[in-house]
Each structure stands twice: as C-alpha cells, then as structure tokens.
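Hey,
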Amino acid sequence: MPTIHLRPIDVDRDFGQLAALFSLVQDDPTSEADLKKDYADHRERIFCLNAAVDDDGELLGFNWATHDRSDPTRAVFYVIVWPERRGQGAGGRLYADVEQAARTAGIRKLEVSVRDTCPESRAFVERRGFSEHNHSIGMQLNLDAFDDQPYDALISSLKDEGFEFTSMALLGNDEDSQRRLYRLNDTAAAETMGSDGTHPWSSFEDFERRVCETDWYNPAGQMVVIDSATGAWAAMSAITRFAGRDYAYNLFTGVDARYRGRKLGQAVKVVALRYARDVLGAHSVRTHHLTTNEPILAIDNKFGYTLLPGEFVLMKELP
C-alpha cells in the first residue's frame, strides 16, 4: 500500500486532472475551463477541496465538499479516485477528510451522488454509514423517430378550452414573467411525486441568478401554458441545448396542482420537444426523473423514451 498524503488543490496545476476525473463519473465530459468557472462561481461555499497524492506527488484522487445553498447544516461532496488507484486507501482518506471538515463547519447532514451503474461506489459510501435517499434515472428520446402528430388534437382541444401555449420569449421575458415562471417551477418541483418537498430555490433572486442569468437559459425554450380565463400559469416545460452538446435537455416539466389530470403535461412537453427538434436542431433529447415520479415516467414511456444510466443520492446524518 502506498503512503498517501493530502494537500490542498492547486487550481492551475490540478484542475485538468480534476476535470478528467469528473468526466469519468458524469454523463458528459467536463472541461478544465468549465470546472474553473464552476469553482469561481461557488468558491465561497466550498469548505473542503484537497488532493490525495503518493510519495512521488502523483495525484490519486480528490475531494470537493460544498455547503448547501439554502441549508448551512447540509453539504454535498465528491470523492473521486483514478480507477487504477482505487482500493489503496486514497478514497478512505479523502472521505475522512471531508467528514472531519464537515464536523468543523457545523454540518449535520452529508449528501453524495453515485452512478447506478457503479455498485462499488455505492458500497464505498454505505460502508461509511450512508443510506439511499432517492434514485433518478436518465432517459433519452430519438426526436427523428418521435411521432408528434397524434398530439395535435390534444393541443387543439386544450386551446379551445382557453389554454394559451406560449413561451417566455413571446411573453417578453420581463421580470413579471420571470417571477411567475419562478413560482410555477419552484412549487411544481417541490410537489413532484417522490420528492422530499425541498424547494429548488430560496427566493426569486436565487432563481433569477441561477436560471435566468445563466448561459443555458433560453427564453424561447421555456414553454408555458396559461389559463386565459384566470390568468393562472398552469403548466411549463423547459428545454435547452447546452454548449458543445449534440442533444437537447429537458430541464423540467411541471403542472400546477389545480390543473393536473387534464393532460397539460403531455401537451406542453410535446411543444417543447418540437422546439428542440425544429429550432434547436437536436436529433435527441435527454432528461432525468426520480423513479418515484410515476406521472412523468408514464408520459415519457408513452413518447418512446429509452433508459440511460442514472444515479443514487445517499445521505448520512452526522451526530
């Protein structure tokens, strides 16, 4: 067993290797530039970021732990080790470092995500007291093969009932519209079947900064359904195409509780998929769902989505 040393991460020297390691455990490649930008954006919330190295100074792996945005007693972390250097104690040292730093920082709950195709990673954290919190799966739709014409009648019927299908771009993407989008998105996400009721954003200002001001936010791809009789925002489906990706990504589809059971989710998602195919030029679209979110899974299965690898979220309470 090699002697393992921990040292602080050096952004300029190490981030190329960190990006390569992140790329091993995520759906898409992570570039060094993107990782540096993410680090700069969230630096104030990072409380543990160290490398494990051997006697020769070779980087074996790293940890990265960050305070939750809305709950200062909760943290999310990564421990990633090069596959050929696993089983030599580096991961254990890196995790112990995270837990010690978390206790010092007053953290009461640690959260980690592991690929559902990597039982070794799940076993690693379970041996350290973590238990499953939820499971999300990846799904992908071939837009070239997707037959959307059968949904024309549904969309037409909903329009006849007084529902307006529009987008943030057509609504002007002004502050009032963004606030309405925030209320619908935040509430529908917190009420998603199988979720723990946590709100994705702490305030409209948080939503504005983390969604509306990002590079990936595309007002024309933020589809909205409005009840013309009341002015209520009834449903939404957000879709975009991240830079450098050859597919579109459906970020979220949700329906206000008062309007569920009227197939608005299906209809607005079809509109979003058409936009991805006809405007964004995507040949496929991906998304992720909790395995407990039966309504949206039923819709995607009906549309012809196929499964992709997903991830488990595991948690541990620190006494």
